[in-house]
Structures are given as structure tokens and as C-alpha cells.
Amino acid sequence: MTKKLFKGLAWLFAIGLVLQAWLAGLALFHHAGYWSTHGRFAEGISVLPFLMLLISFAARLPHNIRTQTGMLAGMVLLIALSAMLPGEVGWLAAFHPVIALFLFFRTMAILRVIHEPA
To answer: Where are the transmembrane segments (predicted)?
Structure first.
């Protein structure tokens, strides 16, 4: 049961990341008002890797899955910090979408491993 919950949260997080990219696109190319939606949605999905990390221990998932999930949680902290950086260090804030890419691909890597037969 806990392994299924972990998988479900991982899929929810991956889908949420795609939606985040779409919201950013809407804000850039359609209407800047979508930035607030992007920010609020980020607050909602950012808890998922931390829940996944707790569940990974409860489900006794392999060490590599727990480590990778911990990496997701760390990247969520980094992406949140990058969104709060002032314009004077915009070159650091520019890592925000790069971190988002790493979050997505790491989540998909976790899902690939977790779906492999034991």
C-alpha cells in the first residue's frame, strides 16, 4: 500500500511539474497574471517530495530510491530559493528552470526504477 502511495505521489509530482512549465509559458506568452498561479501551484506541489521521502522509509524502499527522493526534496528547496533571489543576482535565479528540468527527469528516473519488477 505505501509503495503504491509513493508511486502515486511521484506521478502527481511529475504531472505537476509539467503543469508548472505550462503555467510559466502562459505567464510569459499570454498574460503575466499567471505568475501568481504558478507561484501558488508551486507551493502546493512542493510538499510532495517531502511526503514521498517519509513514505519511502515507511515503505522500506531501497536505499537508492530514498537517496534520490531526498535529492528531490533538496532541489525543491533550491528552486524555491532561486525564485526569491533579487535581480542583482539574476544569473543565479536563472537556474530556476534548469532545476525544474532536473526535478522532472529525476522524478521520472525514480518512477522508472520503482516500476521495475523486483
So the answer is: 9-29, 41-59, 71-87, 93-114
Model confidence pLDDT, tens digit, residues 35-80: 999 999 999 999 999 999 999 999 999 999 999 999 999 999 999 9
The candidate with the shortest Cα–Cα distance to 96, out of 72, 111, 77, is: 77
DSSP labels for 24-66? HHHHHHT-TTHHHHHHHHHHHHTTHHHHHHHHHHHTT--HHHH
Whether the pTM exceeds 0.90: the reply is: yes
Taking Cα atoms as reference points, which of 14, 39, 35, 13 lies closest to residue 26? Answer: 35
Q: Residue 113 has which C-alpha cell? A: 526504477
DSSP 88: G
